[in-house]
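Example protein was shown:

_____
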Amino acid sequence: QVQLVESGGGSVQAGGSLRLSCAASGLTYSNYAMGWFRQVSGKERERVACIYTSSGRTYYADSVKGRFTISRDNANTLYLQMNSLKPEDTAMYYCAAGPICGVSKYWGQGTQVTVSS
């Protein structure tokens, strides 16, 4: 059974930082692309960042380039370092795994990030 469990969300002031984590189990980590998505209630889910765990190749949404960094370790944990946070980054953040970036088969339950001005 595949499980993705996010943690690290919270409330922060604009300009602050947060680090999200996603612990993955039940899958062969290196066979998947892992990504972070976010969603605001009433809006479409947005892909924030993605990484191919085998090669380390990464992709970022234009809105977060230069501020967010996606990474993974050898213990099946995915990270999203978020710096220079803005109020518009406020959303529920989800971890996802799939065969390629852009195609997600498994999802976590989400962790809320709130950025105040």
